[in-house]
Design brief:
Layout: H1 11-19, H2 25-38, H3 42-49, H4 56-67, H5 69-90, H6 97-121, H7 128-143, H8 165-169, H9 199-299
């Protein structure tokens, strides 16, 4: 049976880039992009060429995903358990927060020890700042909900920021706001001031009190409904501002990474040009020396 060859630019080849030592990423990415361009695969060439070299913390997190799958999956499990416990508490349901948090911290601790070993083996320095960045990234990855904007484990290029309270609270469905439960005051009929008061008069007084209590209850309902509408509007506005800020941050990071990539490519072209210039200078010197030898033999 003929062995199936791997298609250039496939997911497997892209995954392989993120499993390489950090200092080999750029050359391997450029080499893959060149192969794709020569093969006429323009769309894949553009995609591979735009891949960003990971930060050290992101690279270490990627290695944990590829090399320590069981420990990484345990992190995700404990993080999702913690997220569900947080959501349960926010909705007023009992949850074992302490247990969930302890299990998540234990999972992060295991991976931090493994990442420290990976960083040392790769020849990089393990610093307290690096440990803090790794801890934040692992924490954020563990509780990130699934979705189109979720970071891709194994292909991270930058630190992952923890979810904010607004993002978590936005996951809670708001129910029953259109019909708030309002307790009406219990109507206690007034005791007749005189024994000669008729039943009809007492009924009229009770009816007036009931109407007053009903009007008060309706006013409170209206006030609560307006407050809820105001809070929902404020929440939507805050969410929009957060989304705009996150998009601006992402755009800025993308521009920075593209500029960095352009710098790397320009530096690579410069080094090639410098090498070719040195070779040309050497050839010129050799040619001049040969001309001088010929001139001397002719003159003699």
């Amino acid at each position: 049976m003929k062995k199936k060859t791997q298609e250039a630019g496939s997911d497997e080849e892209v995954d392989a880039l993120y499993q390489l030592p950090l200092n080999e990423f750029t050359n391997a990415r450029n080499a893959l992009a060149v192969r794709l361009k020569k093969a006429g695969q323009g769309s894949k060439w553009a995609k591979v060429k735009s891949l960003i070299k990971p930060s050290l913390a992101a690279w270490a997190a990627n290695q944990l995903y590829w090399k320590h799958k069981e420990a990484f999956e345990n992190l995700i499990t404990t993080g999702q358990n913690l997220l569900q416990a947080q959501l349960s508490q926010l909705t007023g349901k009992p949850a074992e927060m302490d247990k969930a948090h302890s299990e998540q911290i234990a999972a992060i601790s295991v991976l931090l020890n493994l990442s420290a070993e990976l960083v040392r083996e790769s020849g990089h320095n393990e610093t307290p700042q690096m440990t803090r960045r790794m801890s934040r990234t692992l924490d954020a990855l563990s509780i990130y909900p699934e979705g189109a904007d979720a970071p891709t484990p194994g292909r991270l290029t930058a630190d992952v920021e923890p979810l904010g309270f607004e993002t978590i609270s936005a996951m809670i469905p708001i129910k029953g706001l259109d019909k708030p439960q309002v307790k009406t005051k219990k109507v206690i009929p007034l005791k007749p001031p005189i024994e000669k008061e008729t039943k009809q008069e007492r009924a009229g007084q009770s009816s007036a009190i009931a109407k007053t209590a009903l009007l008060d209850a309706e006013k409170k309902v209206q006030a609560i409904r307006k407050k809820v509408q105001s809070l929902n509007a404020a929440r939507e506005k805050a969410a929009a501002e957060v989304n705009a800020a996150e998009k601006a941050k992402a755009d800025a990071e993308e521009r920075y990474q593209k500029a960095k990539l352009s710098e790397e490519e320009a530096r690579s072209r410069f080094e090639i040009a410098a090498t070719e210039a040195d070779i040309a200078a050497t050839e010129l010197t050799e040619a001049l020396r040969k001309i001088e030898d010929v001139r001397r033999r002719f003159e003699s």
